């Protein structure tokens, strides 16, 4: 039986998350950007969907006081259409609610109708359009907002980010994990 879980992203997940990001987005965040998000950004919270040690997707947000700004959500191509994007979004919204956020916002490409449907089903509404928001092709973005996040779970305890290395950082070659096509 396989083990599936949505949990807080750890430093050891950065390589897999960056590989998903690179496969999904035309202007992906770098591995270093994700490292900084996990290690240095006090308002960043990232969740990963994991099945038997494989990261299937991730979702991230910056949570400041009562606002949750969703930065990115991505699911590996092989796992799309199976509800992972919805589950990650719902888990992220609950996590933000647990930390005191009352509302969420995000930008989504005008051409990304699949993501727009996901966000609409989760309670987001489009409130505006950001002209030429995406610098890879000048595409506009819809600004979407959800004004009601889930109430905080009284039993919620935030999982800490463990101070462990990203396996790709190891200099001695032990337990080195490489993404498909990545050179050692």
Topology:
Elements: E1 4-8, H1 14-24, H2 31-39, E2 44-51, E3 54-64, E4 67-75, H3 84-98, E5 103-109, H4 113-121, E6 125-130, E7 141-146
Parallel strand pairs: 4-5
Antiparallel strand pairs: 1-2, 2-3, 3-4, 5-7, 6-7
Helix pairs in contact: 1-2
Core attributes:
Aminopeptidase; disordered C terminus; globular; single chain; alpha+beta; 184 residues; seven-stranded mixed β-sheet; 4 helices; 7 strands
The major beta sheet can be summarized as: 7 strands, mixed
Helix fraction? Answer: 10-25%
Mean pLDDT: 90
Kindly state the number of beta strands: 7
What fraction of residues sit in β-strands?
25-35%
How would you spell out the order of helices and strands?
EHHEEEHEHEE
CATH structural class of the domain at 4-102 and 149-169:
Alpha Beta
CATH architecture heading of the domain at 4-102 and 149-169: 3-Layer(aba) Sandwich
User: Largest beta sheet: what is the strand line-up?
Assistant: 1-2-3-4-5-7-6
CATH superfamily of the domain at 4-102 and 149-169: Gcn5-related N-acetyltransferase (GNAT)
CATH fold descriptor of the domain at 4-102 and 149-169: Aminopeptidase
Instruction: Give the low-confidence spans.
Output: 170-184
- Class derived from helix and strand content: alpha+beta
Structural summary, described in words:
The chain has helices at residues 14-24, 31-39, 84-98, 113-121; strands at residues 4-8, 44-51, 54-64, 67-75, 103-109, 125-130, 141-146. With 184 residues, the protein is α+β, with helices and mostly antiparallel strands. The chain has a domain at 4-102 and 149-169: Gcn5-related N-acetyltransferase (GNAT) (Aminopeptidase). The protein has a 7-stranded mixed sheet with strand order 1-2-3-4-5-7-6. β4 (67-75), α3 and β5 form a beta-alpha-beta unit. The protein is globular and about 40 Å long. Residues 170-184 have low confidence and may be disordered.
């Amino acid at each position: 039986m396989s083990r599936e879980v949505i949990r807080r992203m750890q430093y050891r997940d950065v390589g897999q998350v960056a590989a998903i990001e690179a496969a999904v987005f035309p202007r992906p965040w770098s591995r270093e950007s994700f490292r900084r998000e996990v290690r240095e950004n006090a308002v960043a919270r990232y969740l990963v969907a994991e099945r038997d040690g494989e990261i299937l997707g991730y979702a991230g947000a910056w949570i400041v006081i009562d606002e949750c700004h969703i930065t990115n959500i991505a699911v590996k191509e092989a796992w799309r259409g199976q509800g992972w994007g919805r589950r990650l979004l719902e888990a992220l919204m609950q996590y933000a609610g647990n930390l005191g956020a009352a509302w969420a916002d995000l930008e989504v490409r005008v051409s990304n109708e699949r993501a727009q449907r996901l966000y609409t089903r989760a309670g987001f509404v489009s409130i505006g359009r950001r002209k030429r928001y995406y610098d890879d092709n000048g595409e506009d973005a819809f600004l979407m907002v959800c004004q009601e996040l889930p109430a905080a779970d009284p039993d919620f305890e935030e999982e800490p980010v463990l101070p462990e290395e990203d396996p790709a950082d190891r200099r001695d070659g032990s337990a080195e994990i490489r993404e498909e096509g990545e050179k050692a």
